[in-house]
């Protein structure tokens, strides 16, 4: 990082210290409103930043201010878009939305056909699962998907639930119920329904599709915030990808998420996306 950029970051981080004075409710309200103030990423679903899944895969990802935004059910939401493996037929997916830091994204899923028409919307099928050896408190969905009929999947937030309080039993109460012991006097964890969320997705291929039975949109650089070692992205950047990274870097700086902005900047450089550093510097300077 050059001297000029360090100077801007120092000034910006000094200003960020004032944010600690804001209440958690204020910050939650701000993050829930943010997608409404953000332009949609794409003209149509065919232009979404699709992430190509493998036949069998486990991955973690987030929906936050660095995610693309689009209109769903009359309201804007962050989203992640996935395309199933070309040779997968019937697959079983397990999607979890984790309850962390007093917040949770109540998820909604759309399954699309090869022409990007919504075939099925999944929302009420999610159930609340309590913390166990596999994951923390979460919303969880297990679903079988015929990927020949619906090769595309979109995960976004159920905006009608924003601000809702989700209360789950304290682990001590669950243990007492299971063991028959007296019920302890403890406070149940409460989570606020948010536009931001931490997700895990598991895909298992059960049957294979026939050769060339399923055609998919051309793979684009992996633009989902996946918490695992990603495959080597394509070097050639397309205009949509350039626009996505420029907007994501600006939004990360504007929301004072400098670590995310720098991470996006590194990704953009790796993809040979022109103008990414200039966008970052201008965004910091504007702060």
Describe this structure in words.
It holds the Pfam family MalM. This protein has two domains: about 20-230, no CATH class; about 230-285, no CATH class. It is built from six helices and 14 strands. Helix content is about 25%, strand content about 30%. The strands form three sheets. Strands 1, 3, 4, 7, 8 and 11 form a six-stranded mixed beta sheet that branches.
Q: How would you spell out the order of helices and strands?
A: HHEEEEEEEEEEEEHEEHHH
Main pleated-sheet profile: 6 strands, mixed
What percent of residues are in strands? Answer: 25-35%
**Rg over CA atoms:** 20 Å
Structure annotation, total helices: 6
Structural class: alpha+beta
Shape descriptor: globular
Quaternary structure annotation: single chain
- Give the terminus-to-terminus CA distance: 18 Å
Tally the beta strands: 14
How many distinct domains?
2
Q: Can you give the mean pLDDT?
A: 79
Helix content: 25-40%
Low-confidence residue ranges: 1-24, 227-238
GO cellular component, one term: periplasmic space
GO biological process, one term: carbohydrate transport
Pfam family, one: MalM
């Amino acid at each position: 990082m050059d001297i000029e950029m360090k100077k801007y970051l120092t000034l910006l981080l000094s200003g960020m210290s004032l944010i600690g004075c804001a209440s958690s409710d204020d910050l939650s309200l701000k993050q829930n409103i943010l997608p409404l103030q953000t332009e949609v990423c794409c003209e149509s679903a065919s232009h979404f930043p699709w992430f190509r899944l493998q036949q069998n895969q486990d991955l973690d990802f987030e929906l936050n201010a660095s995610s693309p935004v689009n209109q769903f059910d009359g309201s804007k939401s962050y989203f992640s878009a996935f395309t199933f493996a070309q040779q997968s037929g019937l697959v079983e997916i397990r999607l979890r939305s984790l309850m962390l830091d007093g917040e949770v994204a109540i998820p909604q899923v759309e399954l699309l056909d090869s022409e990007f028409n919504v075939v099925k919307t999944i929302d009420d099928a999610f159930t609340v699962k309590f913390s166990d050896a596999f994951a923390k408190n979460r919303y969880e969905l297990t679903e079988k998907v015929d990927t020949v009929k619906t090769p595309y999947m979109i995960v976004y937030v159920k905006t009608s639930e924003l601000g809702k309080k989700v209360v789950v039993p304290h682990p001590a109460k669950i243990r007492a119920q299971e063991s028959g012991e007296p019920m302890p006097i403890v406070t149940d964890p409460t989570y606020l329904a948010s536009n931001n969320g931490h997700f895990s997705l598991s895909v298992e291929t059960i049957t294979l599709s026939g050769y060339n039975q399923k055609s998919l949109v051309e793979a684009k650089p992996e633009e989902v915030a996946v918490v695992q070692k990603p495959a080597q992205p394509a070097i050639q950047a397309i205009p949509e990808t350039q626009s996505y990274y420029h907007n994501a870097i600006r939004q990360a700086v504007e929301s004072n998420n400098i670590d995310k902005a720098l991470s996006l900047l590194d990704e953009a450089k790796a993809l040979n996306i022109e103008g990414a550093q200039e966008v970052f510097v201008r965004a910091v300077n504007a702060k």
